[in-house]
């Protein structure tokens, strides 16, 4: 089991924020994923900051609504090549939950 530091907090990260103090804009690319290539060749897909922020805000308002964050744990079990791993890592990065990595 591994511990990961909390890098930030999703509270106050509203999708309407025009610009953060570090100069990041809503349409800037936050991270990239590769498609499976089922239509031929895999391609790179850029995920914008505004999409990531909205996704995390939705998690906070639905999945984690009314729960205390300090005790929440998320198992990291999706392969890093699968988009579900992004959700698992982002939850910890912004303080929505603590993650635990397991060697299965």
From TrEMBL:
InterPro entries in the cross-refs: AMP-dep_synth/lig_dom
Domain of life: Bacteria
Domain AMP-dependent synthetase/ligase: residue ranges: 20-92
GO annotation, biological process: amino acid activation for nonribosomal peptide biosynthetic process; secondary metabolite biosynthetic process
UniProt GO cellular component terms: cytoplasm
Any one GO MF annotation of this record: phosphopantetheine binding
PANTHER family reported for this sequence: FATTY ACID SYNTHASE (PTHR45527:SF1), NONRIBOSOMAL PEPTIDE SYNTHETASE (PTHR45527)
Name by which UniProt lists this protein: AMP-dependent synthetase/ligase domain-containing protein
Native source species: Streptosporangium nondiastaticum
Lineage: Bacteria, Bacillati, Actinomycetota, Actinomycetes, Streptosporangiales
């Amino acid at each position: 089991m591994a511990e990961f530091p909390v890098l930030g907090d999703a509270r106050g990260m509203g999708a309407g924020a025009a610009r953060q103090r570090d100069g990041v804009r809503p349409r800037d690319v936050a991270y990239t994923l590769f498609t499976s290539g089922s239509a031929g060749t895999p391609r790179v897909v850029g995920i914008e900051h505004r999409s990531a922020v909205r996704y995390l805000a939705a998690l906070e308002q639905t999945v984690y609504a009314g729960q205390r964050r300090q005790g929440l744990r998320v198992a990291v079990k999706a392969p890093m090549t699968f988009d579900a791993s992004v959700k698992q890592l982002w939850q910890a990065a912004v303080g929505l939950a603590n993650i635990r990595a397991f060697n299965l």
